[in-house]
Amino acid sequence: MLHTELGLTSGYLRGMIPDWLTLVFWVRLPVAVARLSPAAASVLMDGVYLVRGTFVGAGAPVFTALLGLLAGARHSGQTFATSLLVMGFLGAVAMMSAHLGLLGTIGYVIGDLVIRERAQSGIQESVALLFSYALLALLTVYLPLLVGTVRLAARKAYKRGDLPLWLEIVAAAVVAAIGALAWAQALRVLIRPAFAWQGAQVSAPDLVPLTNGWPVIVAVTAGAAALRVWREHKGRGGIVAAHVKEVRSALQQRTRRVASADPVQQPLAIGATAALLTVLVAGLIDGIAQGVLVFAFFAAMLWGRARLAGTPAPGGAPRMSVLARGAVAVVAGYGLSALLLTVPNGSWPALAGTCLTAALVVLATARSSARPRGAKAGA
Amino acid sequence: MAATVVVAVALIVAVLVCSATLLRPMLRGGGLTLASGGPHPTDDDPAQDASAS
After folding, report:
1. Quick check: ipTM above 0.90?
2. Which residues of A touch B31 (CB under 8 A)?
3. In chain A, how many domains are there?
4. What is the DSSP annotation of A200-256?
5. A61 and A178 assigned to the same domain
6. A377 in a domain, yes or no?
7. Is residue A372 part of a domain?
8. Which residue, A240, A259, A278, sits at the end of a domain?
9. Are residues A243 and A285 in the same domain?
10. CB of A375 within 8 A of CB of A315?
11. How far is it, in rounded angstroms, from Cα A65 to Cα A69?
């Protein structure tokens, strides 16, 4: 009965693996979580195309969590960044499904904290570990959602009917590659506090998986993103069609309530976000004075974005898409950073380059692409 | 430190700041994930259906 309800096409292993596990992982859990957080529910629904039978539907989450557990329990070194295998495996799995990426990460965390008995460390060490897990989640949970968003945008932007499969594959692979490249490059700096707060020094061999192995991370991530698009198109046809309306309705009800309010417009939200961003770039910060300055800069940047958000560009300004403006800002930021880094002044040039480039991108993309009222088309 | 690393860190900061706006399409009805297993994202949007036909 449940097979019919789910629209499952594959009959092998029917009855051997609990059907309810498939339903729990891909329908019941997202619906329950949607009441608390639509974002978390979206993560849990990501990858539902994989459910082509009870074996994959129930098996993939369990196996991914177990492999993550094994990776966490068996890896050597202070953090995941010392293992190319862990980063490559979790990156590839995440691109197939953010849900599986989350489960792999949770498995890794449990393996690292419990089986390796690192939970018994001091508070500072625990904070360092939590910080490293958050950095890992950027690759395993956040990046798949970002790739999905770009695919949606590409489908909407394509005016000549349905977006061709090859174009969607290329778009997904390129965005995944850029995201994985940025993550791997940034991690060389961002991961430093995770070592320092555990009382360990970062040595060059610790970062070899990142400095030498980043092409592997980029390649497997982009490859998995491309494979996913192909698999999704191949599997189109209503695998869990009976429950799509139920899950979508649960998500939409909650989303409507939160969509009207931008979460980073209130002073308290701006302060909290600026504080989190300051902690994120702690690897670049040398001393409390720099920390306070970075916090103030990020708070001002967020305030500026909140002021600009949703307002159309001035009438006389050249009309550019948000993506084009972001790309121009990144190129300008790169040039500015290269110039600043020629100045030998401790950690200041890198910090200034990071803050200014981030501000350029954030503020350049804040305004909407909409034409102001009264402006003529083609002006 | 290379400018590439600096820009990569800045890009991550910027993308996180823009999260609310960037990920909004994915949060609307489950976005791509639901669409891929069932109807197209715009299939249940009468306005878009009308304009497409």
Report:
1. no
2. 42, 148-149, 152
3. 2
4. ----GGGGHHHHTTHHHHHHHHHHHHHHHHHHHHHT-S-TTHHHHHHHHHHHHHHHH
5. yes
6. no
7. no
8. A259
9. no
10. yes
11. 6
Taking contacts as CB-CB distances below 8 angstroms, the residues of chain A near B25 are 149, 152-153
pTM of the model: 0.84
Examine residue A112 and state whether it is found in any structural domain, yes or no.
yes
Q: Provide the 8-state DSSP code for B4.
A: H
End-to-end C-alpha distance for chain B, whole angstroms: 55
The dihedral formed by the CA atoms of B11, A81, A188 and A329, expressed in degrees to the nearest 10:
-10
Sign of the CA dihedral running A30, A270, A285, B10: positive
Domain tally for chain B?
A: 1
Q: Do residue B1 and residue A362 have CB atoms under 8 angstroms apart?
A: no
CA dist., res. A172 & res. A152, Å (int): 10
Of A198, A227, A259, the position where a domain reaches its end is A259
C-alpha span between A303 and A362 (Å, rounded) = 11
Among the listed residues A250, A252, A259, the one whose alpha carbon sits nearest the alpha carbon of residue A30: A250
Q: Please report the pLDDT score of residue A202 as a whole number.
A: 80
Tell me which residue range forms the domain holding B26.
3-52
Stretch 79-138 of chain A: residues touching chain B, C-beta under 8 Å: 138
The answer to whether residue A147 is domain-embedded is: yes
The string of pLDDT tens digits covering residues A281-329 is: 999 998 899 999 999 999 999 999 888 876 776 665 667 778 888 899 9
Q: Residue A337 belongs to what H/E stretch?
A: helix A322-340
Cα A194 versus chain centre, distance: 19
A218 and A357 in a single domain? The answer is no
> The domain containing residue A42 runs over which residues?
2-259
